[in-house]
Every structure is written in structure tokens, then in C-alpha cells.
Amino acid sequence: MAMEKRQQHQCYGAGPKPTFRFAKHWAVLLVSILPILNTGLAFDYGDALKKSLLYFESQRSGRLPYNQRVTWRHHSGLTDGLEQGVDLVGGYYDAGDHVKFGLPMAFTVTMLSWTVIEFQHQIAVAGELEHALEAIKWGTDYFIKAHTSPNVLWAEVGDGDTDHYCWQRPEDMTTSRQAYRIDENNPGSDLAGETAAAMAAASIVFKKTNPHYSHLLLHHAQQLFEFGDKYRGKYDENMGVVKSYYASGSGYKDELLWGALWLYKATDNEKYLEYVINNAHCFGGTGWAMAEFSWDVKYAGLQIMAAKLLVEEKHREHGDTLEQYRSKAEHYLCSCLNKNNGTNVNRTPGGLLHIRQWNNMQYVSTAAFLLTVYSDFLLNSNQKLKCHGGSVDPEEILGFAKSQVDYILGSNPMNMSYLVGYGPKYPARVHHRGASIVSYRENKGFIGCTQGYDNWYGREEPNPNVLVGALVGGPDCQDNFTDQRSNYMQTEACTYNTAPLVGVFAKLLQMEGQKSHDNHNQPLVASY
């Protein structure tokens, strides 16, 4: 099991594999008729939203609060950082193990914050804003602790190799809790840039409700960005322990641009915008045309954020560069929509975007989020998306994002929800240590490292604890899914899978509510 996290990260730059033209045509046909076939399926996006936020409580490390809603979890990792003389208690476990990896945790918090920035009203109307803010703050509180001085950021607690040889509850952990850091002598511009982005984005979220905290986050974000920019290097080259798990395949230049743009949004300070403009070409911001957006590769998200600046008069002087960003942003969107010339994202026969076989759902959720955000942007600015295959109106873009979400929730050949705990059928044997072993609250008897493998890992029975709101890795390129604990390529869930969906669920809930309201107000028409 030591290799369970050796994910698609090593495949950066490798495009989706070609499919036979016949299969492609059938995929397109199926996508076009799916909405017709599934009109009888009604999804409760409000329930999906509520459950997606519950998931982050399952992934908490540290001392759990009095209002913890996921009651099968208990305190864990209470001595994290002790060996190094620093308090690193808190934060999130990234997936089904107990390592606290800084890069995916930071991306998770950036996406949760972006979600609230874009869809705060919709989340609030659904009654889930407080939970969304709690999910963000659980991460940012940890980042404040981890950033112990201007040029020091603690990047990881625990290590994947020893962690993956054990199968035990987080409350029973006996594995190494050694902490690793980046600093002037061991730089990590990618990690510093992403953490700066997370804290800058979160500072926007808390600006009105908690201005002191917002200011503190912004202070840390600015220091982290300066550190990452001044002492440049890839974090995995200076911290070998992470290389097999979350190696930075795209390098650090995308994170520096990403961090700078979030700092510009948070401060309105021109120096950050100038950084994004002046480094657009040499850092690949206007060069890379991507077909994915993930914890590793930030270009598509960066390009979409930059493209949205074009509608503001004050950015006219940078119009040429921002147009180049927009061109690359729209390449990503058009490739998701199957409207580029030969460089489209593959789809399964059931219509799901398919990038890689390992944890493919992470790419689906980020795509659904970016499509939804850009659809709103086009609608509000009275524009259309221009693709090689013709122009696309905002409604069609949102419709495709909805089709991906509906696939996740059960509109798929397996008739299964890949959001755990949602609907009548969902993965019951998620690859997750805590969920697969009897709850600590029910049985406080110590369960050892190999005892978990011997007595719990191989069980055929469903997990005793339901990991509500987790988005698992999902089906393969033919829509097949095997619900086995050992099938970690498909049954492991990650925080950055679920995070982008929070806002999309809220948006779709609003859309369904509006549709219902419009139908209710339709005038009666007599028929003969």
C-alpha cells in the first residue's frame, strides 16, 4: 500500500490518450441524448451541498470543536510539530491516510474560498454559509501556525511511506509525525505561492465578517508570496519525502502567477497585477493551453481569473496581455465542451470528462466549477464563448457543467452516486482508514498498525462509518467502477475533489429554484 498515492501527478504534460473515432462519435451522441433520457431524474442539489461540506469535518486533524457534526471522528494528531518545537496541530488529512500534505491542502482552501467569493449568496440562501466559512477557517488557522516566520513554511506532517504501511484510525496513529519545512535554503515557490493564494482568497471571504482575521491572513499571504518569489525552487526537489505523492509536475511558475493574481484581487495593489502581466509570457501564463485544472496545474484557473479582468475599464492598458490569457482560458473551456479542433478532453461513453484513470473526478469537479464561473461571467457581461466549433452561449456552458454534476450524483451507466452518502446507491467501501474501522467513539480499544490491515482492510462488508460528502476517484474511461477498498484508484476520495463542487451545487440549487418559480408563475393556457 506504500504506493497508493503515486497518482497521476507524474503524468503532467501527457495529454489524454486518443480514442477510436467510432467510440468518439458514440460518446458525442450519448452526451446529446442523455438530457432527454434523464429528464425524469431530479437531483437534490441542496442535499448534495450540505453533504459536501460535512466531508471536510471528516478530514479534520487536531482537537475537534464542540460543534463537530461528524461524530464518528475524534481528536487526533495532538502532538504534531512537537518534535520540531512548533505547534502544527490542526489542518486537514488530504485523503484516506493521515499525512498532512501542504500543497493539496492549500489548493483545497483556495477553491473553497473562490467558491464562497463567487457563490456566497447562493450558499447563504441554502443555509450553508457558516459551514463553508468553518471549512475554510479550519485550513487557514493551520496555515497561520505553519508559517512560523517570513521565510519558513511547514510543508508536511508525517510521511507517506510509513503512513501507508499502516491501516489504523487517526485517533490511534503510531506512525511518524515528523514535520518538514521549506525555507531560504530549501525553497518551495510552488507551495509558498499556493498557500499565499489560499490565504489571500480567504482574506477576501472574511473581509466583512472578520476584518481583523482577514488582515492577518493577508499579511501572511504577502510574506509567503515574497518568500516564494525571492527564493525560487520546486518544493519536491528540496523535500524528497513528498516526491512520490504530490510532486509539482508543473513547476512553480503557475503558482507564483496564481498567488500574485489572488493578492491583486485581495489588495487592489497594482504591483501584483504588473507581476501577472510582466511574467505572463516567461512563466507560461499566456503560453500554456491546458486541458486540466488541479492541485498541481493552476494555469486554467489563473487564465480564467485574468480573462475576467478584461471587462473592467481600469485594465484596458493591459488589454493585449489579458486577451492572451483569455485565449488560453477559452481553449480550456472549449476543450471541455468538445468544441476545439482535435484537442478536446476525452469523454466516457456515458458523457463524463476523462483525463486520467487515477482519481479522474478531481478534474471533473474543477472543470464543472470553472465552466460555471465562466458561464456566470459571460451572462453578466452579455458575451458568448468563441470556440473553433462555433460560439457557445452561457446557458449551454452551464448546461454542460450540470451534466457533469448530474453524472456524479447518479445519472450514469452504473446508476451510482459518486458523492458518498448521497442518493440510494453510492460507494460503500471507500479507501479511507478512519471510515473503514469501527469508530473510536464506539470502541476506544487501541487498533494497531497491522491490526487494521488484518481485521478491517480486507473486509467485504461496507465501511462502518459513511464518509458523507466525499467525491471518490470515480469510474474508468468506460464508465466502469469497482467498489472495493483496495481499488484506491477509484474509491479513494480527496479534499480537493469535493471543494470545487460546493459552489456549483449552490448555483444549480438556485437555478432549479428559479425554474420552479418560473413554472409556478406560468399563465394557464386553455387547450381545445
UniProtKB/TrEMBL annotation:
Q: Where is the Glycoside hydrolase family domain?
A: 45-504
**Lineage: superkingdom:** Eukaryota
Q: What class of enzyme is it?
A: hydrolase
- EC number assigned by the record: 3.2.1.4
Residues forming the catalytic site: H431
Q: Per the record's keyword annotation, is Hydrolase included, yes or no?
A: yes
Its keywords, alphabetically, are: Carbohydrate metabolism, Cellulose degradation, Glycosidase, Hydrolase, Polysaccharide degradation
Q: Name one GO biological process term.
A: cellulose catabolic process
Recorded catalytic reaction(s): these are: Endohydrolysis of (1->4)-beta-D-glucosidic linkages in cellulose, lichenin and cereal beta-D-glucans
One GO molecular function term?
cellulase activity
Q: Which family does it belong to?
A: Belongs to the glycosyl hydrolase 9 (cellulase E) family.
Report the protein name in the record: Endoglucanase
Per the record, the gene is LOC105141636
